[in-house]
Amino acid sequence: MKILGIVLFCIIVVGLTFTGAYAVKKITPEERGRAFFRDANFADSKKSCDSCHPNGRGLEKAGGKKTFRIMGKRQNSIEEAVNFCITRASKGKAIGTRSREMKDIVTYIKSLMKIEVPGYGVPGYGVPGY
Ligand code: HEC
Fold first, then answer.
1. What pLDDT is recorded for position 65?
2. CATH code of the domain covering residue 69
3. Best substitution site from 59, 78, 85 to test ligand 1's pocket, by max atoms within 8 Å of Cβ?
4. For the chain, which ranges sit under pLDDT 70?
């Protein structure tokens, strides 16, 4: 009886361990990007992106845009806009335009376009395909 208990315990422990490992592996670029977005220390920053853009609010169209204007300055790509906010708004250090962090953040920002926002259904307005 005791042996059976130990065996069952081991099966459960091994099962949970593998479930945990599997869950870690399954984190998507979008989820990593969201985690960076909420991390106050991301890119040596003082503030998280989320503190000014709670849950990505206000960035729903950013994923489909080519040019940006933040704080009176123009940016010619989403990567430039992200780095502008990192250095000017979050007081951090710019990250590589082709780095994995940048790709993850951009993937997260693009995922915000999927959120239903009033006005997206209006023809000729908003994101293509809506
Ligand atoms: C101190 C506040 C602040 C912080 C922190 C901040 N931003 Fe911004 N962000 C702004 C302001 C202000 C604008 C320009 C106005 C707007 O479009 O909402 C902006 C605009 C943007 C835009 C362009 C939106 C558009 O559609 O034109 C992107 C993309 C963006 N931020 C990403 C980020 C990311 C990524 C971070 C974290 C690294 C971040 N921001 C942190 C204040 C902030």
1. 96
2. 1.10.760.10
3. 85
4. 1, 9-25, 115-130
Rounded alpha-carbon distances, angstroms, from residue 114 to 23, 42, 60, 86, 117: 24, 25, 8, 24, 9
C-alpha 101/C-alpha 106 separation (Å) is 9
Which one-letter amino acid corresponds to residue 123?
Answer: P
- Contact status, residue 82 vs residue 11, Cβ threshold 8 Å: no
- Whether 50 is covered by a domain: the verdict is yes
- Give the number of the atom of ligand 1 that is nearest the alpha carbon of residue 109: 29
Task: Say whether pTM exceeds 0.70.
Answer: yes
The answer as to whether 93 is a domain residue is yes
- Is residue 125 in some structural domain? no
Range of 79's domain?
A: 28-114
Nearest CA to ligand 1 atom 20: 70
Is 1 within the bounds of a domain?
A: no
Domain count, the chain: 1
Residues touching ligand 1 (Cβ under 6 Å) are: 47, 49, 51-53, 58-59, 61-62, 65, 68, 70-71, 78, 81-82, 85-86, 89-90, 105, 109
